[in-house]
Amino acid sequence: MTSMIGWLGGAYPWVKAAHLIFVIFWIAGLFMLPRFTIYQCETVPGSAEDRAWVDRIARLRRIIITPSMVLVWIFGLCLAFDIGAFGQGQGWFHMKLALVLALSGYHGWAIGAAKKVADGHRPASTRSLRIMNEIPGIATILIVILVIVKPF
Ligand code: HEM
User: Fold this and answer.
1) Cβ(129) to ligand 1 under 6 A?
2) What is the E.C. number (predicted)?
3) Contacts of 1 (CB under 8 A, 6+ apart)
4) Which of 6, 48, 98, 111 has its CA 20 to 30 A from that of 79?
């Protein structure tokens, strides 16, 4: 099989720009999702305010976060094959991949938590939602250091 390294040619910086545009949309949406869920927890199930949050959260998911996650993965994997990031001596990339997999899992967890609240469930406290809401920020700090500094 011929090597895929360099297959993007002059398109590489454009693909990188597209990658970063959708990274910003995805992370911005992940910051908002548990916040919206916390606000919804303060409403009475079935009230107009409750239904308004169900709608806001559904639109955030459908229009912003899920499509952005898919595009971040597609563009990111294109870049990874172009530079041969899966090879030896690319510790930063393997670590980044582990973190983005965890962030994708977090995405699924946050959607699940929002669905329970949409179904009328109200957790005893929003503490765990508020703690979980720190994850995208921490992941962003670690991922950006890994890709920019490439410490290993
Ligand atoms: C979802 C799977 C992802 C994959 C497969 C992936 C892969 C890649 C690859 C291979 C590069 C090129 C690195 C280089 O040219 O040196 C890159 C660039 C970058 N990625 Fe990702 N990425 C993903 C998600 C993310 C996320 C979630 C973030 C931020 C939170 C992120 C932030 C960045 C940044 C800041 C760059 C630019 C690095 C530079 O210019 O050197 N990526 N990504």
Assistant:
1) no
2) 1.3.99.-
3) none
4) 111
What one-character-per-residue DSSP string does 34-101 give? HHHHHHHHTSPTTSHHHHHHHHHHHHIIIIIIHHHHHHHHHHHHHHHHHHTTTSTT-HHHHHHHHHHH
Q: Is the CB of 71 under 6 A from ligand 1?
A: no
Asked if residue 142 has its Cβ within 6 Å of ligand 1, the reply is no
* Distance (Å, whole) CA 25 – CA 27: 6
One-letter amino acid of 69:
M
Check whether 94 is labelled as a binding-site residue.
no
* pLDDT averaged per 10 residues in sequence order, the chain, 152 residues: 86 98 98 97 97 98 98 98 92 97 98 97 95 97 97 92
> Is 115 annotated for ligand binding?
no
Residue 146's Cβ-side half-sphere holds a number of Cα atoms within 13 Å equal to 18
Distance 42 CA to ligand 1 centre (A): 37
Question: Which residue has tokens 């993007």?
Answer: 8
Supply the pLDDT for residue 2. 66
Q: Ligand 1 centre and the CA of 126: distance in Å?
A: 32
pLDDT at 1: 53
